[in-house]
Design brief:
- This protein folds into two domains: 142 residues, 3-Layer(aba) Sandwich (Rossmann fold), CATH 3.40.50; 138 residues, Rossmann fold, CATH 3.40.50.
- Helix 4 crosses helix 5.
- 36% of the residues lie in helices and 18% in strands.
- A six-stranded parallel β-sheet has the order 3-2-1-4-7-8, sandwiched between helices.
- The chain has eleven helices and 14 strands.
- With 299 residues, it is an alpha/beta fold.
- The chain binds NADP nicotinamide-adenine-dinucleotide phosphate.
- NADP nicotinamide-adenine-dinucleotide phosphate binds next to helix 4, helix 5 and helix 10.
């Protein structure tokens, strides 16, 4: 339970609704700012203007997935007003408070560092990345279905990177009957891909492996699907790039060659905001409870 814990939510999207629901269930004291267009009643939740005073006794400030932009803007879907995280806001937070976001840009990192506040980037946590890989894989497959005229079943798929997202995606595609080629850079990843029934290859060999591919999914956050690789892909291929912006694909060359290439950021929040919100809520709860020497459950 989070009895006596005060959490302030600033901005965000539909994912935050699930977080609010979960926090109130756990008896936390919840203040929300940037939700004035929200009609849904949340019993006991205080709606407040985005002024520094609301942070004075906060145990945690929850920001949206991207934290803030580099000018301090907090994205807030449920208000017309602009929310900005300023020095004045952060300076009011108690020193024991945590600032929590999916990820942080330098602006947010610098502010927290300046004020000696602990910044928690939830998406960096292994457990969160693995839970998030489920809606990410489903979203990637949704995009694949929308952008091809063949079934996933029987298709030739290539997955680049067998990390937390790539592994879930490759296995889900395989479960749907696709043939999977997996691009990796380490020998242990190669062996694991082989064990799982994928056709592994080393990334250094990517261009040579790229003929006869229907769907190429990239999860490697660096320029990897280069013009040289795209030149080897058949024209029917569709590239779905999941790696964080700007992705790992030469989109200019793909367009020039007439190959469909899509950057697909933020899939969990788009295809499954409720699930994605629950993942954030569980992880936030765990972060707070860990600090208090208790353990939460992510279920
Ligand atoms: P991860 O677990 O770190 O996996 C990244 C993979 O890329 C690892 O297998 C890593 O190989 C490989 N890799 C990194 N640099 C490489 C290089 N230079 N050459 C070859 N392989 C390389 O990360 P993740 O959680 O799966 O996330 C992957 C990307 O997707 C990130 O950019 C993340 O922000 C993004 N993401 C996007 C969404 C979305 O909705 N689009 C959702 C979640 C995550 P090693 O194992 O050998 O290190």
């Amino acid at each position: 339970m989070l009895t006596g814990v005060h959490v302030v939510l600033a901005g965000g999207d539909a994912r935050q609704l699930e977080v609010i629901r979960r926090l109130t269930e756990l008896d936390a004291t919840v203040t929300i700012s940037g939700f004035d267009r929200l009609d849904m009643p949340f019993t006991g939740v205080v709606k407040a203007d985005w002024s520094p005073e609301i942070l004075a006794d906060a145990d945690a400030l929850l920001l949206p997935a991207v934290g803030t932009e580099d000018d301090g803007t907090i994205s807030a879907l449920f208000t017309e007003r602009e929310l900005t995280l300023t020095d004045a806001h952060v300076s009011v937070l108690p020193k024991s408070a945590k600032v929590v976001a999916g990820m942080a840009k330098p602006y947010l990192r610098n502010l927290c560092e300046k004020h000696g506040l602990q910044l928690v980037e939830l998406f960096e946590r292994d457990d969160v990345a693995i839970y998030n890989s489920i809606p990410t894989a489903e979203g990637a497959i949704m995009m694949a279905i929308q952008n091809t005229d063949i079934t996933i079943h029987g298709s030739n798929c290539m997955v680049l990177g067998l990390g937390r997202s790539g592994m879930t995606l490759a296995r889900t595609l395989q479960g749907m009957g696709a043939r999977i080629k997996a691009g990796v850079r380490r020998e242990d990843s190669f062996a694991r891909a082989f064990e799982m029934g994928f056709k592994p290859f080393y990334i250094a060999d990517l261009a040579r492996q790229s003929g006869n591919i229907d769907l190429l999914f990239n999860t490697i956050p660096t320029m990897i699907v280069t013009a040289q690789v795209i030149a080897q892909l058949p024209l029917r291929a569709c590239i779905i790039d999941l790696a964080s912006k700007p992705g790992g694909t030469d989109f200019r060359f793909a367009e020039k060659r007439g190959i469909k290439a899509l950057l697909a950021p933020g899939l969990p929040g788009i295809v499954a905001p409720k699930t994605a919100g629950r993942i954030i809520a569980n992880s936030l709860t765990q972060v707070i409870l860990e600090d208090r020497g208790q353990r939460g459950s992510a279920s």
